[in-house]
């Protein structure tokens, strides 16, 4: 894999090619990654996968016309042709008054924060296999587990570089480490599956494979012999492993492109009281070793810690330059880049601030409710906020979880759900979106 300096130089060289081909302005993104994963099942090697990729993307502007193109061929002739084709495409494209690079005065010039996103130790294939086997063995050792879908371990490395024709150049590298186990409990028609999984930038930040395996096995056994729920309105408590999806729907609706297209259920609600006044949602792109940490955004703007929701009110839209121009606002440092195309908007490490009550206290007054551990399907309307998803979990009776339930649907509207949302005090810190246990009253359950 290239060095950070070499990756930047490759992006800058492609911009120079584009300028020579006639582009008025351009930016280039270079990315490379390599990963290895090992899967075992029932104590035997099931799969070994190794992948490597390298890609460069170019976006050029001819006045207010633009085009994007990319290639995995890094040869000089291929890159010359790439630049020439991109300029020709841009000249033939329709005009877009909002197209363009980020405002030059907003570019970050560094020095970039030290985020410690790279693990210096590379695990060997035998060590990955040993981790996968240990996770599966621990899961299979849980009484009631009858079969296995496998244990897995993975390691990866990535590099990202961005350069623009108006003065930005930056790069950073990352590593990823992961382990998982998935097992089956019960027999015949009564079988239930569940899993344990964790990923981190550094192997030292992962729990032991024995812990992950035990989580997988215990979760699967706990789901045996699920009952049914009666239909009706009741409080719903979301486990942290699924509660982050509620914040994810909020973030999707805050994207500047959705606001500019008037296709978001949050339209005209900036600054409006949507949550209880004690609710905050914090973004921290500079979290050391964070899964989504980054020193700059996809257009070369600085990233920074901020409250996206403060006092229960949304404080900003998530704006890359094009949507910011369309809305008459300033870009917010949320631009994201893939292999090609114009920037989108994304957030870095998020967390919903913890409340004051324990999960047990949060459920104490629920006479009849449900604790959700799994959500199924994608029944969320980003325009209206209507919410309907299949689910499974545990029934709550008189403040206690009393047994598994399955095959029911949760329905409501996200605006109503946000207004009725109460977080517990058990905030977890190992996901891209970190949340505590969440209670939402008044949701509609469709069961038997």
List the helices and strands and how they pair.
Layout: H1 4-20, E1 25-41, E2 44-62, E3 65-71, H2 76-92, H3 125-140, E4 145-164, E5 169-185, E6 192-200, H4 209-222, E7 232-238, H5 240-254, H6 256-260, E8 281-283, E9 306-310, E10 313-314, H7 321-327, E11 335-336, E12 344-345, E13 350-352, H8 359-363, E14 368-376, E15 386-397, E16 400-413, H9 414-419, E17 421-423, E18 433-434, E19 438-446
Parallel strand pairs: 7-14, 13-18
Antiparallel strand pairs: 1-2, 1-4, 2-3, 4-5, 5-6, 7-19, 8-9, 8-13, 9-10, 11-12, 14-15, 15-16, 16-19, 17-19
Structure description:
This protein has 448 residues and is an alpha+beta fold. It has two domains: 4-221, PmbA/TldD fold, CATH 3.30.2290.10; 226-448, no CATH class. The chain has helices spanning 4-20, 76-92, 125-140, 209-222, 240-254, 256-260, 321-327, 359-363, 414-419, and strands at 25-41, 44-62, 65-71, 145-164, 169-185, 192-200, 232-238, 281-283, 306-310, 313-314, 335-336, 344-345, 350-352, 368-376, 386-397, 400-413, 421-423, 433-434, 438-446. Helix 1 (4-20) packs across helix 2 (76-92) and helix 3 packs parallel to helix 4 (209-222).
């Amino acid at each position: 894999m290239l060095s950070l300096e070499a990756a930047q130089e490759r992006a800058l060289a492609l911009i120079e090619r584009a300028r020579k081909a006639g582009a008025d302005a351009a930016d280039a993104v270079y990315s490379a990654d390599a990963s290895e994963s090992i899967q075992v099942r029932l104590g035997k090697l099931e799969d070994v996968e190794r992948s490597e990729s390298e890609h460069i993307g170019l976006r050029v502007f001819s006045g207010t016309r633009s085009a994007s193109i990319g290639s995995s061929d890094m040869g000089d002739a291929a890159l010359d042709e790439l630049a020439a084709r991109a300029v020709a495409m841009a000249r033939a494209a329709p005009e877009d008054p909002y197209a363009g690079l980020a405002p030059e005065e907003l570019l970050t010039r560094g020095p970039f924060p030290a985020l410690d996103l790279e693990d210096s130790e590379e695990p060997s294939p035998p060590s990955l296999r040993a981790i996968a086997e240990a996770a599966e063995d621990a899961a299979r050792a849980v009484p009631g587990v009858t079969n296995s879908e496998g244990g897995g371990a993975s390691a990866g490395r990535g590099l990202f570089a961005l350069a623009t024709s108006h003065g930005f150049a930056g790069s950073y590298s990352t590593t990823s480490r992961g382990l998982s186990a998935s097992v089956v409990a019960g027999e015949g028609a009564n079988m239930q599956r569940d899993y344990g999984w964790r990923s981190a930038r550094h192997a030292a930040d992962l729990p032991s494979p024995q812990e992950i395996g035990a989580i997988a096995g215990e979760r699967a056994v706990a789901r045996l012999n699920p009952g049914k729920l009666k239909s009706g309105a009741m409080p719903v408590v979301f486990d942290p492993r699924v509660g982050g999806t509620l914040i994810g729907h909020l973030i999707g609706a805050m994207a500047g492109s959705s606001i500019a297209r008037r296709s978001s259920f949050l339209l005209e609600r900036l600054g409006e009281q949507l949550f209880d006044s004690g609710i905050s949602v914090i973004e921290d792109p500079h979290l050391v070793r964070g899964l989504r940490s980054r020193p700059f955004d996809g257009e070369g703007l600085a990233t920074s810690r901020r409250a996206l929701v403060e006092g229960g009110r949304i404080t900003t839209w998530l704006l890359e330059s094009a949507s910011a121009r369309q809305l008459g606002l300033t870009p917010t440092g949320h631009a994201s880049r893939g292999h090609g195309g114009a920037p989108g908007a994304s957030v870095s490490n998020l967390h919903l601030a913890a409340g004051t009550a324990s999960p047990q206290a949060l459920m104490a007054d629920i006479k009849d409710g449900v604790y959700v551990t799994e959500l199924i399907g994608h029944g969320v309307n980003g325009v209206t906020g209507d919410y309907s998803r299949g689910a499974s979990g545990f029934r709550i009776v008189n403040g206690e979880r009393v047994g598994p339930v399955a095959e029911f649907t949760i329905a409501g509207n996200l605006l109503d759900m946000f207004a009725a949302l109460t977080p517990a005090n058990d905030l977890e810190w190992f996901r891209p979106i970190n949340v505590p246990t969440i209670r939402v009253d008044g949701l509609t359950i469709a069961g038997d």
